[in-house]
Specification:
The structure is a homotetramer.
Chain A: E1 6-11, H1 17-26, E2 30-36, H2 40-49, E3 54-56, H3 59-63, E4 70-73, H4 80-89, E5 93-97, H5 104-117, E6 121-124, H6 131-141, E7 148-156, H7 167-183, E8 189-195, E9 205-211, E10 217-223, E11 230-237, E12 241-245, E13 253-260, E14 272-279, H8 287-301, H9 309-327, E15 333-334
Parallel strand pairs in A: 1-2, 1-4, 2-3, 4-5, 5-6, 7-10
Antiparallel strand pairs in A: 7-11, 8-9, 8-15, 9-10, 11-12, 12-13, 13-14
Helix pairs in contact in A: 1-8, 4-5, 5-9, 6-7, 7-9
Chain lengths: 347, 347, 347, 347
């Protein structure tokens, strides 16, 4: 790759696409060349704001343009596989929005296509580029928290209801990608229970639990029905505890020097330690800008991005197992098993 | 029952017993006559503070004292059945701490003993006498919230670990009793998953889900491992939403005039209503004082208390089903079924 | 005035100017025609984002352009008078940033120039167009709060230090304009005390007090030296109390049904009423958009805007009196007096 | 002083007296022997709870009892001088509630009486024994905050209105004693402005400012008219900032590694540093228990307590100067001047 700017095209100008345009436009080392969308109406704001960017309603114009190095795809999930395969066939690097695909089968096909093409595949799990998420990861890596025992997450707000997939597939990718990034391991089993209250067939609230080989458990409450926006993940370690609150403007990460020291039956109350609370400064960088730059760097260096195809595939595997569990009334479903293979009850 | 003061004895002077002594002492219409505990040491503070109250290490002195009308029992769970049966056999009214018993079998035996004796049996589910809990119940009864869709609860803090039962049996009675009181129905199934991190066989964190005939779902995160004390229950109704926060000093109950109004595919974003937020004044009365007075009133009037034996039995049924679910890896266990009878997966 | 769009030019493209460009661009009924700034560098982002807007480094091009109906001025305070006079002489309507001027003399000259020209003069006291501020004003107008007793304001954050004026002139215009809008009266006296900690001659913290004919008192803590951003105004009325918090995302306005009911010496503790707390929904409209539309409407209808020249002049009068008080060690300075005329001590 | 327990009597059994009885009762090294109050009714709860403590309606019984070593006085302010003088004349050590007296003259007389008697005089400025206040003091002593620039305090709540003195004398002693303890210097001037809203002659809200030789300024908003209870003191230092919040259950003290680093005109925005936030663990000890023990230790060791007579006198001096300022409309009154001597305006 030369030192010239990476020429990027964006496919999909709905809710997220314009954010990709803006961030690649601002990122050093990249130029946004073209934007495609089926809807002329959605392209209008792009044209107005960035008169120099070419727009088109036919994404094939982008795929066939040899001047374009990379494609960022922000289209409905069910189109991801075809668009990714097309882009890789044309020799382009791909950033595709999360989740990578709606099925493990499609996700695997995309990963294989990237491997065959020898091109970079990155999945837009923006949160793993969020400075607060990184701050917690560093604390875990350094061993500050000790052995991770459990993670509890609240990710709820009022709306926005989707029509073609449920809240597990809408909000779940965030929790799963962050949790796998923090724990650095894949779950053993997934368990999801929930309810459909506004639409008859689409869950608007689910509770998801994942069990890990290390013994760690991760639980998440995901909901489109809540009185306020909550984005809180609590990490309980054997040494310290951390809370990551994505909604607050300050103190997004707090490390609690709290724990259970020892457990002698006759001195029960002394066993708890509630020490200092520390809130490390978290840079205010926009996560999507970090992500855009990481995509550019990964292409230039040829090293896989943090949220590469396999990371994206793991998330889809969890969601697919979770969907099976949901359908089966919340039984534990083995992480890598087909839906019909229900995991043996623990103990 | 004459207009004379009710003569109350308290059995058990550990953590909770002294609170019962203080509250019955302050309640009009009752006198605390005696306190029993196996440990002289635990009786010392009682003697010092209330020199006029008789103390004894033999609870049978209390049971056989015909001058005593009612007994409040705050002893370890496994002793509840024997003590209650003894008290009813002696013709006394009984207030017993929650949970009523450690098994459905014992709980049923206690309820039957009360019925045979024709005496009042009340279980110390203090939270159903908490003015904030009552405020939410009134809002539900009036239909302010519409149809209840789901309840999500966080009941976590650092410790206090127990040695003879897990966090489900320690904190669960609160959530179950409040939820059943609010919804006024019994669950269809119970599902519990969790982990043992500090002690090898005792869960210090569980997530419990209950499904109800009305379609409502209640979920609770119960934990002894958390960086801070959280006591928050969120009630999502089809019309409005409510949050009950037991930790905050003010605004313990908030009613959110929020909801999803209509769902036309082409006007998705307009479907959400975020209106006023109202925080009704909640009386600052101590819940245990309300409970003590309700016990006295129930005895005098001969009407069953809100948390009568059957209410207490229902809580034990849920906990027992929850224990089975926990053992089986979190499958749904039918509420009234024996542990081995696993509920049919939903849908 | 025809039904054609109002043709607006913006003078000053520093921190605030681009916000004016964006908001007039989005407001129905107005077109931004031109932007002037002495610095080509500051004009670049405007050119890039709005290629159709004419840019110039000579504001006289704007003043002499007969096609331009109105000018929005966002330049340093000391240039306000000359620019406003020039604009009015050219027959243009003017929106000028707050404070209207750095002295009462200049402010009066601007008001007179507007009157002579028969054109609309509006001062950019954006907060009086803030929906939360309007919500409190409505509550006061309806008498919900009763007689206003006092207002206490915290308006602090870390930086941004100015070099040519102090925190009183930087943050004070907000508090003064909001307070005068709410109370609908002019103060009798002003009292300011403060300190210079970072720069030797420029106060970075002041405490300002205003006394009003109605008996109301308004106090504000204004600071560039604080650990966090606080924007809270508390209004104490004889019937109810209100808190307006501009930093929070939800519940920006809370009305407390609290008060002191009666004061009989022998029943002191019963005299306090702490009732419901109500948080009315506040529209999320951007205040500057409301302001831009109000400017357009005022011009079209010929009626004076809420923050007209006289409103702006009153704010400058308060600030000038406050500066005198600051210089004199915090004595009460009569609101309409010349700086040397110190107010007689109260009582 | 022998190793025998100190025999303490409490004079005054109103609001605060019972707290003194309880704490001296619990403190090792002291026994509460007797309690006096003019009202038999107020003595009843003492008798009921502590049957072994002698009660009397004649405080002279206490003063003349040679078996009593120390007297804790919790009576109305205007009685402090006579009671203290009587106690010292009888050779007793004295803990007297704050403020030490209602006038500087009385306060000086008490200090002199203690000196003449060679007995310990301690004033009940409980907050200087509050572990959170001590934590901030330690941070200041270590130089963590750098040079203290200003302190801003909010000490407001709804009620409890007093009838014989205003909010300055009611809540002011807390702020003044804490501030003088933290800054370890006496103010140069005091400035107070305020209003009387509920009672015609008694201020229910005041704003007090103190200037110090070091250049530090301390400001406090004291009020009985507020929608909620706020107890927040913010300390701005040249290096770091601290917030002490007495209302919150956790994180009572936060240290902000925030500041203004340098101020070069062309790099203004880089001058602010917002670093980590640290919340040191604050012991949960009750301040009054610390105070009681410190009184006992001071008597035994013969060293003056932290809040000795002179500390109490300084507080009264500030309050008396503040009262003069309030009467004079808020001018700066020199700290050690007689009320009629108004300080020269600054600069």
């Amino acid at each position: 790759m030369s030192v010239e700017a990476l020429r990027v095209a964006v496919v999909g100008a709905g809710y997220w696409g314009p954010n990709l345009v803006r961030n690649f436009n601002e990122a050093p080392g990249a130029d946004v060349i073209a934007v495609a969308d089926l809807s002329r109406e959605r392209l209008q704001p792009i044209r107005k704001r960035y008169p120099s960017i070419r727009i088109t309603t036919d994404h094939r114009e982008i795929m066939s343009d040899r001047a374009i190095d990379a494609v960022a795809i922000a289209t409905p999930i069910k189109t991801h596989r075809a668009l990714c395969e097309e882009a890789f066939a044309a020799g382009k690097h791909v950033l595709v929005e999360k989740p990578l695909a709606g099925t493990v089968e499609d996700a695997e096909a995309i990963v294989r296509a990237a491997e065959r093409a020898g091109r970079t595949l990155m999945v837009g799990h923006t949160f793993v580029y969020n400075p607060a998420v990184t701050t917690v990861r560093r604390a875990i890596e350094r061993g500050d928290l000790g052995k991770i025992q459990y993670i509890d997450s609240q990710r709820v707000n009022l709306g926005l209801h989707q029509f073609d997939f449920n809240v597990l597939w809408d909000l779940g990718p965030h929790d799963v990608s962050i949790t796998l990034y923090w724990l650095d391991e894949e779950p053993t089993w997934v368990q999801v229970t929930g309810g459909c209250f506004v639409q008859s067939d689409i869950e608007d609230v689910v509770w998801m639990t994942m069990g890990f080989p290390s013994g760690a458990i991760a639980h998440a409450h995901l909901s489109w029905l809540a009185p306020g926006k909550i984005r809180t993940m609590t990490v309980i370690g054997s040494k310290q505890m951390a809370v990551y609150d994505d909604v607050t403007a300050v103190e997004k990460v707090k490390i609690f020097d709290h724990g259970v020291e020892r457990l002698e039956p006759d001195e029960l109350r002394r066993a708890y330690r509630a020490g200092d609370i520390h809130s490390p400064r978290v840079p205010v960088t926009e996560a999507l800008q970090v992500e855009a730059r990481h995509f550019i760097d990964s292409i230039r260096s040829g090293t896989p991005p943090i949220s590469d195809g396999n990371a994206g595939l793991r998330v889809v595997r969890v969601l697919e197992a979770g969907s099976s569990s949901l359908r089966l009334g919340g039984v534990r479903v083995a992480y890598d098993a087909a839906p019909e293979k229900v995991a043996t009850p623990a103990k």
